[in-house]
Amino acid sequence: xxxxxxxxxxxxxFPVIIAILIGSVGGVIIGAVPGIGPAIAIAILLPxxxxxxxxxxxxxLLGVYGSSMYGGAIPAILINTPGTPVNALTTYDxxxxxxxxxxxxxxxxxxxxxxxxxxFSILAALIALFVFGPYLRDLGALFGQRDIxxxxxxxxxxxxxxxxxTMGIAAMLFGFGFLIAMIGRQSTxxxxxxxxxxxxxxxxFNLIVVIVGIFALSQALNLMVGKDDDPPQARITGGLxxxxxxxxxxxxxxxxxxxxxxxxxxxxxxxxxxAQFFSYSTARALSKEPTRFGHGSAEGLIASETSNxxxxxAAMIPLLALGVPGEALTAMMMxxxxxxxxxxxxxxxxxxxxxxxxxxxxxxIINVLVLATLLVSSKYIAKMIYIPNRFLGAFIMILSFVGVxxxxxxxxxxxxxxxxxxxxxxxxxxxxxxxxxxxGLVLGSIILxxxxxxxxxxxxxxxxxxxxxxGTLFVVILFVIGFxxxxxVRNRRSDYxx
Length: 498
Fold this sequence. Notes:
Strand order of the largest sheet: 1-2
Number of domains: 1
Structural class: mainly alpha
Shape: globular
Number of helices: 21
């Protein structure tokens, strides 16, 4: 209880409150503008966090992360264009409702569903901290260097498995990110890895430079070479306060979807898309009118928006408990932890319990602020849909270069950001995923660090998995790989027979 009270006091300072407000409102606006998205916004903001207090930085990023999907539902429903990638499923039923003249009903359902999903996962995480907090502190004794390394490998396997249609490409891009992580001078032994006597590479690539290039600059290029098509006009009429009443009438679908989102968020490498798939499929199976799904079903909209907004708070759990980010956005947040001298992992429950409570309570406040903002200002936020793509691309590019240069006042950083930006642009044009590169860089760094730290205890390959935790995780890894192989064989047999 003392940690909870202290965590609340940490939030009740003027700079933190301002950061929550800016992150919440800014995240909604960012989500409402097709073409930006939370990953790009956080990539642009990361350089600024170097100069901010750690809690201020994290609540600012959490505000963007937790609120962008609220805003992303606006263009998905009004003009059939998802504001963020995870709002793509919202277009199936949301835009169909708009075409029936039910835009306000669809937005109201989206907001109330998002709020339920977000609050559900936050409360689940807070209850877990309250109930299991004393036991979680003992995790530090269970998790050694090899255990955390194995957990990071499991995260990599789950990440690749999540890209069901492009697992080979995802594995290759993860390997590319891992290769980037290897570049630099190994501090304990003084070994140079892939530096080629280039002084800049001795310290390795700055994670912020890579993230800004891969996400922000690549999207800026993508927007600038595209066309400025005028989206169709869509009007919001009527009130937006009726969604909770309708949501209560469909509470089974809502609670089931919130549970899916929470569970899938906890599993590294899974995230919003898999949560939405399960939620949407389950909602359709339970529905009395399954044929309406994809044609303006309120249950389909609820399933999509509830599940994707339940993920952010849940995705913080593997990051904080194991130091393993589940997806790109939590991987970016690890930069702030590292800069603050806080190593996410089992020890954080003993050393910084108030800090954990501060983060989850900030997320709860963010959800309340976002809902209040949207209920009274959706008509004005919706105007962000009509910003020209080329102007948006140029604006993102300028902010990216300013942010990268401000880190170390280095033109070399800007040059490498351009290189990674071009790589990201090519991958976007090929429709290949960007997330595996960033997670390859982050998880690769963890694997290399823990492998080096535990090298003195490793005499043979079996020593990597001879502890209870690492052994259990290794069995899970084998199970996941076996499931992937079995599924692939079944699919090939099915395709051959057809």
